[in-house]
DNA sequence: TTGTATGCGTTATCAT
DNA sequence: ATGATAACGCATACAA
């Protein structure tokens, strides 16, 4: 029972290994006689046979494994993305192998090396920073590679993302429509396309409306609640004419900011409006429920998986797909104080 | 550059493949002459050679891959566990392959099948329910298997967990010490050991103190914020003499409950104390900051990975390890209303 | 329809 | 210290 091979199955069924192989293959079992096929399957079950995927992969030249690289597993918006990837891959008989970079380029390089050594059939990357461009270009030249969530302009690597510029603009328009004229944005790392896009979309719309926008850069490498805390202190201290609304580049930053605002006695949305990004599950459950921009994570993951596994077919395998963002208005935004 | 094999390297270095193999092996490169070794390494670099781990695995009988099975990637407490696993495995040159069951036993069965077919060197399971006992026993008989976070009593499978009974007791003692005499617990699924342990530890301590404990079972299969919402409505409607404190079996349930309480005009902790479980990152940032029981996720993951990779050494490879829980007192608990 | 033979890329054994 | 060779388990081209 320890290690049953095809040979064992073939012997028990009284056929050659090649026949056994065919009988067990979903694609070629039509060419083997129903009777022998049954006896092979029976023998396989009796012995508890299980294809050795490693050996199979070696022979066929495909492993059936797709590498998935994320920056931070704890970031709640990544859950749906992973799920979308896993479902799409599972439907095609593939298995995802998930790894985390903690947004470190060194980690990313090491992980790519490992995945390539595993001869994965494709790689989905959601952790790309500008500095990784040449590395990822090399990777993409060796194995089908798709960027998900985060694009990497100029890399030539196909991407499935959503329109961060429009997302930023939606946030701006919402605040403007409520009457805000002085706003600030708490920015995620600007060497990541998603955040740069959000920043531009937001700022441009604010400026175009003749309102003023203060940009606050977070210091931490990871855009977490802690990063939000650090930066709001800064904001409230520094600005002489403080904003009436804040756009946080993701929900975690927003939640961190919310805490500090409260400590400063500022209620949300009465004293300060706050809008986040991603629409992670918890945003609906905190108080006040967070207004945010929805990122269609599951869809992104699904499409990325489909793209990476469609090796060169009719599909483009290059260029980029962008889904549309959507604003979710909840309780954290309102009219500016008089 | 497409697919450089050892043969290519050997030819370029003017040696046999077997010599090339030895020269590149960290363990056996001591037996090859320094000069040839250098020329082999040089050739490998020049050609961009990368070991084919599939072929290597086939030959050696070990894949260097460990399967990691979680119930719900979106559950924030799992992040540190995964990180602990990944670090420990990475340090040993192994690669984790992560999968999600969404707490479905069917999914679990399918995933185990796939992992076994991949000939993983070990499996770490954090998604065990009582109903999975026989399945997991079969799995454990084929490959080193370790349960993490959730034990499975009577399965004989080694586990790295923490002491949920004590965790429940800590929650109870904290509430009792604040003067609460009528309390309720919002229970996670009781076919999962962690939640059953918390339930018993809590209830026993409450009863022993002569106080009263109302058990509320969540309906959802997954212990999420939504589950917390559903159940608190129930609690507030049903109990004639309502509790003054609530123990939620995890932080997500607690956060869901918090929202409903607020909608009912109940402030926390003034009208109702609330204590969660797991100490996920966000609990410190919501309002009020949540009192909770800390689960040492990173440590659990690390130890599980170490155990699953220590095949039969001096180590026990059976029995269970339990880490100690710890209470984190924040703002969501206080004295009961007069 | 089935069997024979070969090779995927690597490593371990045995000679040399 | 190095080379020749076999074998890991499977899938396929080809022959029968």
Polypeptide structure, described:
Two copies of one chain form a homodimer. Chain A has 338 residues and is an alpha/beta fold. In chain A, 43% of the residues lie in helices and 17% in strands. Chain A has twelve helices and twelve strands. Chain A has a six-stranded parallel β-sheet with strand order 2-1-3-4-5-11, sandwiched between helices. Chain A has a six-stranded mixed β-sheet with strand order 7-6-8-9-10-12, with helices on both faces. In chain A, β6, α9 and β7 form a beta-alpha-beta unit. Chain A is elongated. The termini of chain A are far apart. The mean pLDDT of chain A is 94. Chains A and B meet through α4, α5, β2, α6 and α11 of A and α4, α5, β2, α6 and α11 of B. The structure holds a DNA duplex (16 and 16 nucleotides).
């Amino acid at each position: 029972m320890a290690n049953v091979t095809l040979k064992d199955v073939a012997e028990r069924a009284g056929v050659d290994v090649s026949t056994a192989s065919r009988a067990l293959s979903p694609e070629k079992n039509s060419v083997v006689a129903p009777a022998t096929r049954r006896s092979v399957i029976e023998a396989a079950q009796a012995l508890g046979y299980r294809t050795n995927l490693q050996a199979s992969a070696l022979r066929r030249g495909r492993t059936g494994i797709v590498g998935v690289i994320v920056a931070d597993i704890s970031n709640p918006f990544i859950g749906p993305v992973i799920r979308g990837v896993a479902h799409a891959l599972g439907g095609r008989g593939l298995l995802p192998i998930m790894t985390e970079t903690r947004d470190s380029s060194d980690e990313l390089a090491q992980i790519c090396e490992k995945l390539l050594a595993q001869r994965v059939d494709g790689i989905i990357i959601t952790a790309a920073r500008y500095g990784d461009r040449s590395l990822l270009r090399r990777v993409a030249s060796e194995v089908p590679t798709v960027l998900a969530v985060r694009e990497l302009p100029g890399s030539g690597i196909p991407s499935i993302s959503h329109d961060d510029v429009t997302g930023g603009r939606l946030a701006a328009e919402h605040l403007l429509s409520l009457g805000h004229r002085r706003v600030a944005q708490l920015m995620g790392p600007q060497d990541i396309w998603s955040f740069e896009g959000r920043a531009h979309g937001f700022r441009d719309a604010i400026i175009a409306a003749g309102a003023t926008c203060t940009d606050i850069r977070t210091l931490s490498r990871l855009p977490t609640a802690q990063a939000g805390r650090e930066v709001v202190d800064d904001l409230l201290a520094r600005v002489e004419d403080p904003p009436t609304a804040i756009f946080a580049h993701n929900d975690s930053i927003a939640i961190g900011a919310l805490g500090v605002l409260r400590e400063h006695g500022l209620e949300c949305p009465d004293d300060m409006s706050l809008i986040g990004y991603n629409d992670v599950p918890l945003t609906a459950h905190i108080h006040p429920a967070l207004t945010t921009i929805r990122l269609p994570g599951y869809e992104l993951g699904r499409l990325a998986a489909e793209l990476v596994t469609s090796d060169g077919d009719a599909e483009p395998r290059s260029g980029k797909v962008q889904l549309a963002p959507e604003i979710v208005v909840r309780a954290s935004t309102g009219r500016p104080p008089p």
